[in-house]
Write a structure and sequence with these properties.
The chain contains eleven helices and seven strands. It is α/β, with parallel strands linked by helices. Strands 2-1-3-4-5-6-7 form a seven-stranded mixed β-sheet, with helices on both faces. Helix 6 links the parallel strand 6 and strand 7. It binds NADPH dihydro-nicotinamide-adenine-dinucleotide phosphate (NDP) and (2S)-3,4-dihydro-2H-pyrrole-2-carboxylic acid. (2S)-3,4-dihydro-2H-pyrrole-2-carboxylic acid binds next to helix 7. (2S)-3,4-dihydro-2H-pyrrole-2-carboxylic acid (A1CAB) binds next to helix 7. Pfam families: F420_oxidored (PF03807), P5CR_dimer (PF14748). It catalyses: L-proline + NADP(+) = (S)-1-pyrroline-5-carboxylate + NADPH + 2 H(+); L-proline + NAD(+) = (S)-1-pyrroline-5-carboxylate + NADH + 2 H(+). This is Pyrroline-5-carboxylate reductase.
Length: about 260
């Protein structure tokens, strides 16, 4: 089995590695990160060995996931660009960096997959947008990429021009959902519900509602209408949300994500 390597072992790499451990054995992977102590801890917990340096990790991996913050990428490029070759598959999860930025940063002679996952990967419910030039990869590599990205959730192949938008739908959106759950729970606590029960109920309502969208195929507006009884309680809340600019706030958040992608390099 060709090795899967990770440079950086933070929130996202940990989540992805956890998914991969269901499909691959620890010996099929390797990683490097910034702090020795943390690397030792991950190796103890997962059995996945760590390399002595980023260059060593890059040398050993056939599939190399770059999982550092965008601001750290230029430094990592400097450390690995003389090591990586065209035989390897370089996988980026960084916001803002295009395939062409990544290829250029790594010296021009590499094959790059650009992706945008999200933290629900930690519980096997990730959503990852992926793009690459299909002509550059073998069937075996494409199959491995599919196995890799679906080991921690769902994936969709998208055109690269849409990847910054995908950032809002996959990468950033969990933060908004958590804010919604927190606010909903606050509202319920305000009216007397115990806090932990409010979190459990709000989270299950979000999970169930998401399943309704995915499994019924109905328009979200129709599903919303099914909840709003004429003269009932929900439509009063919907009116209050509209007054507070609920939907336009979310649309503005997506614009903010989209624009920030261009300022990350
Ligand atoms: N968090 C999210 O929801 C999402 C993040 N992403 C992308 O994932 C990438 C990583 O983000 P995230 O996991 O959140 O970040 P984290 O800060 O959690 O992880 C970054 C990791 O990089 C390590 N690191 C720092 N400097 C170096 C270095 N010079 N060499 C090797 N490793 C280094 C850090 O080590 P240490 O901890 O020891 O300092 C840490 O393990 C980013 O590019 C981000 O855009 C994509 C989708 C969602
Ligand atoms: O905030 C960020 O930049 C990263 C990318 C998408 C989610 N988290």
């Amino acid at each position: 089995m060709a090795k899967i390597g990770f440079i950086g072992m933070g929130n996202m790499a940990t989540a992805i590695m956890k998914g991969l451990l269901k499909e691959f054995s620890p010996e099929d992977m390797i990683f490097s990160s910034a702090h020795e102590e943390k690397m030792e801890q991950v190796t103890r917990e997962t059995g996945v060995p760590h390399a002595g340096s980023n260059a060593e990790c890059a040398r050993q991996a056939k599939y190399l996931v770059l999982a550092v913050k965008p601001q750290v990428l230029p430094r990592v490029f400097g450390e690995i660009k003389d090591v990586v070759t065209k035989d390897q598959v370089i996988i980026s999860i960084a916001a803002g960096y295009t395939i062409s930025d990544l290829t250029e940063g790594l010296g021009g002679q590499v094959r790059v997959v650009r992706s945008m996952p999200n933290t629900p990967a930690m519980v096997g419910e990730g959503m990852t947008g992926v793009c690459y030039d299909e002509a550059l990869f073998t069937q075996e590599e494409k199959e491995l990429l599919h196995t890799l990205f679906t080991s921690f959730g769902k994936m969709e192949l998208v055109e690269e021009r849409l990847m910054d938008v995908v950032g809002s739908a996959s990468g950033c959106s969990p933060a908004y959902v958590y804010m919604f759950i927190e606010a909903l729970a606050d509202g319920c606590v305000k009216n007397g519900l115990p806090r932990q029960m409010a979190y459990r109920m709000a989270a299950q309502a979000v999970l169930g509602s998401a399943k309704m969208v995915l499994e019924t195929g109905k328009h979200p507006g129709e599903l919303k209408d099914m909840v709003c009884s004429p003269g009932g309680t929900t439509i009063e809340g919907v009116a209050a949300l509209e007054e507070g600019g609920f939907r336009s706030s979310i649309i503005k958040a997506c614009d903010a994500n989209y624009e920030k992608n261009k300022r990350l390099k």
